[in-house]
Design goal:
CATH superfamily of the largest domain: Medium-chain alcohol dehydrogenases, catalytic domain
CATH class of the largest domain: Alpha Beta
Order of helices and strands: EEEHEEEHHEEEEHHEHEHEHEHEHEHEHE
Shape: globular
Largest sheet: 7 strands, mixed
CATH architecture of the largest domain: Alpha-Beta Complex
Oligomer: single chain
Structural class: alpha/beta
Strand content: 25-35%
Number of domains: 2
Distance between the termini: 11 Å
Helix content: 25-40%
CATH topology of the largest domain: Quinone Oxidoreductase, Chain A, domain 1
Number of strands: 18
Number of helices: 12
């Protein structure tokens, strides 16, 4: 099969021929139709998140089941599926407590070593050299994933529309539902209106938020945010974002501010935009070592809540999201602004690096 292989920080990925991967116990193989281009992949490509090389990135996968490993039930060859970027083992202490989004094996094996849960990769160069996997290694013609991370796509839903549900949409849902528990009438700000930010904006209305303020430095992204349901937009390159948000909310600040990029300026904007008792939810993945400041007295005096959110609970929440898509209540395709062929995969990430991608870009593979 062909795969986009990452070999060194800040070097272009290159398309290589790898041996076809095959599933082992509890796993399935997927012929990949499309894969979203996520900012977390970009952190790895830039060397900002440590990860072994050579590696295949890509974790927003839509495709068709092509092979089923032993001990897998509930799937058939030919099923149309989408994957969650978090691959819950279903066995560790966190999974047992319902905290699949912080699965112990996922972080120890996959994020730490590029392996699946028997301690090995499924990807190899023709000479036998191992190639490591970021999640299921979706920037390839064929991908292997634990069956716990795959979900059938409802009839009538286009595969090409839903690859990003498994990461940007699921990440946004987890932040809104589990971290912040947004309720009808709440006011929210989304600081950084990229892929995850776009999903936060789109879903916030479904949760009943009365005010959704999108903050960004790009007018194109702010226009897209308005199309996705933002009630107000703020260009933080032109005005003081926290002051503008307080003006919009009658001097209060918002109930919840989501930081959706992973940078110091966006964190500071979110931090300074909330009302007393408000929540600052950090969703964006920052380069390792990035630090944000917070006055400890302010936290206590204003009763502020600072929370981290890595994603939703895949086995509970992915079926909910796909049902919303099937009923037309969630339209991830509206956030897709660019589509690339597999041969253009590096172009997709170069555009993401330059900040040109509005919403989500998708690489069409199969």
């Amino acid at each position: 099969m062909r795969a986009a292989v990452h070999t060194a920080a800040n070097e272009p990925m290159r398309i290589e021929e790898l041996a076809d991967p095959h599933p082992r116990a509890g796993e399935i193989a997927i012929d990949v139709t499309s894969c979203g281009a996520c900012h977390t992949d970009l952190h790895v490509l830039k060397g900002e998140l440590p990860f072994p090389v050579p590696a295949v990135l890509g974790h927003e996968v839509a495709g068709v089941v092509s092979e089923i490993g032993p001990e897998v039930t509930g799937f058939s060859v030919g099923d149309r599926v989408v994957t969650s970027f978090i691959m819950p083992c279903g066995q560790c202490g966190q999974c047992a407590r319902g905290n699949e989004e912080i699965c112990e094996k996922f972080f120890a094996y996959n994020r730490g070593k590029g392996q699946l849960y028997d301690g090995e990769t499924r990807l190899f160069r023709p000479g036998g050299e191992p190639v490591w996997m970021y999640s299921m290694g979706g920037l390839a013609e064929r991908s292997v994933t634990p069956a716990t991370a795959a979900y059938r796509v409802p009839d009538g839903v286009e595969l090409a529309d839903v690859a990003s549900v498994g990461c940007s949409t699921m990440t946004a849902y987890g932040a809104l539902r589990h971290a912040a528990d947004v309720r009808v009438g709440d006011t929210v700000a989304v600081v950084a209106a990229g892929g995850v930010g776009s999903a936060l904006i789109q879903l916030a209305g479904s949760f009943g938020a009365s005010v959704v303020v999108a903050v960004d430095i790009s007018e194109d992204k702010l226009a897209n945010a308005r199309a996705l349901g933002a009630t107000h937009t703020v260009n933080s390159a032109e005005v003081d974002a926290p002051a503008a948000i307080r003006e919009i909310t009658g001097g209060r600040g918002v109930d919840v501010a989501f930081e959706a990029l992973g940078s110091v300026p966006t964190f500071e904007a979110a931090r300074d935009s909330v009302v007393e008792g408000g929540q600052i939810v950090v969703v964006g993945i920052a380069p390792r070592g990035t630090s944000g400041e917070f006055d400890l007295a302010t936290i206590a005096r204003r009763k502020l809540q600072i929370k981290g959110s890595y994603g939703a609970k895949p086995r509970r929440d992915m079926p909910v999201l796909l049902d919303l898509v099937a009923r037309g209540l969630l339209r991830p395709q509206d956030a897709i602004s660019r589509r690339y062929s597999f041969d253009q995969v590096q172009d997709a990430y170069d555009a993401l690096r330059r900040g040109e991608t509005v919403g989500r870009a998708v690489v069409d593979i199969g």
